[in-house]
Amino acid sequence: MNGNLGRNEAAVPNGSLLQLGAEREIAIYQRDGVAWIADFRGGRGELFTAGEWFALNGRGSVLRRVDLDSIAPLPARLIERIERLHGVEESVSLAAPATRLLERVARFWHELSCRPPRMQRS
Fold first, then answer.
1. Distance of CA 51 to CAs 57, 59, 121, Å?
2. Inter-residue contact 11 to 2 (CB < 8 Å)
3. pLDDT, tens digit (0-9, with 9 covering 90-100), for 10-47
4. How far apart are alpha carbons 62 and 70 in whole angstroms?
5. Which of 18, 109, 115, 121 is the most exposed place for a label (fewest CB within 10 A)?
6. Three-class SS of residue 119?
7. How far apart are the C-alpha atoms of 82 and 79, rounded to whole Å?
8. What pLDDT digit, counting tens, does each position of 91-115 carry?
9. Distance CA 71, CA 95 (A)
10. What is the spatial distance between Cα 77 and Cα 117, in angstroms, rounded to a whole number?
């Protein structure tokens, strides 16, 4: 049963983990109907859609070197990290329009305050 049922989050119930040495792990999974890749290097994780990741990583040439024994289901610890990454990404994308609006308002007020006073005709 999905513990996130009824919330706005989309859980990552399954996927595959590819272990690429001691410092790199790649999680491939589907979330909200989109194929995602979480690329962990040296403890730092980044999210990509599958298309973005393959475009940036030589069309997946690194995957050709994967040993079949290094492929496993996603462990719970990694699913939690992936959900945190998605949470950060979603909060940033939701805040972006508000940030742009505030920047525009600030620029408008700055420009308005820098204008010389208008002379009124009598």
1. 10, 9, 63
2. yes
3. 556 679 998 888 888 999 999 988 999 999 998 899 99
4. 13
5. 121
6. coil
7. 5
8. 666 555 566 666 666 766 666 566 5
9. 36
10. 62
